[in-house]
Amino acid sequence: MKNNLLKSSSNASSRFYDWEFNLICSEQKKDVNMWLKLAEKFGGPILELCCGSGRITIPLSEKGFKITALDNSVEMLQLLKEKADDNIEIIESDMTSFQLKKKFKFAFISYSSFQQLLSKKEQIKCLKNIHKHLKDGGVLGIDINPCICEEPDILTKTHLYTAWYPPNNSTVSMFTSHKIDRKNGIKHWQDIYVEIDKTGNETVYKNQISLKECSHNYMVNILEECSFAIIDIFGDFEEGQVTKNSNNIIYITGKN
Ligand SMILES: C[S@@+](CC[C@H](N)C(=O)[O-])C[C@H]1O[C@@H](n2cnc3c(N)ncnc32)[C@H](O)[C@@H]1O
What we know:
Elements: E1 4-8, H1 12-24, H2 31-42, E2 46-49, H3 57-62, E3 67-71, H4 74-81, E4 88-92, E5 104-109, H5 120-132, E6 134-144, E7 154-165, E8 170-181, E9 186-196, E10 202-212, H6 216-225, E11 228-234, E12 249-255
Parallel strand pairs: 1-10, 2-3, 2-5, 3-4, 5-6
Antiparallel strand pairs: 6-12, 7-8, 8-9, 9-10, 11-12
The structure holds S-adenosylmethionine (SAM).
């Protein structure tokens, strides 16, 4: 009989993160070039909030930037540590409450990670904390997904893909479901990964993630409230204009 193991763990997301990102995030991938260009423009030292496994951190350090990479997930930071060089300082902390002794010319939060703060209060705390850590004239860039709540309120368990997982020579099937809390503007996902190894043993990993809806007006207001002045707003990673079809809005703001 086949074994069926259930692992409901916080590290389900880190376990498959790099592999899944390369597999399905063909549009989001284009953000790396944009962050590299912005880093060239605004200079280091750089503070990357929610750096994750270093998808953007590593290309920045390879270009010679000194970068402080911050995340609150031990598992994601472990993945980064395995790839990091001396240009990278790794900090395990929360983006709302970190305390660093230095100040930065450029800070950024990529890939909707700011929206993992689920209340306006937490978001303001985070922005004010970043403000404190920027040098005079320093710049903050944030990539927001403005359309997270543009879907039906409920998606029942839906198969997204099945693919070969090279690290274990196994096969992974991914299923997702979501619920949208309209009152609070929060979307909650439950993702399930079913990994089947070459002997047929099955392990199930579960991961939950929630993001807060942040409309364009909401972002403009909250940034102003936290003393950031808008320098530029892009509707895609090629620095195009914002349109009603923009899946990403990138706010480039200066410390007032
Ligand atoms: C979608 S991943 C993005 C990782 C990376 N920036 C990228 O683009 O590949 C979101 C990251 O935000 C981190 N994160 C979520 N909430 C956080 C918080 N309050 N403080 C610090 N990091 C947080 C998670 O641990 C995760 O690594």
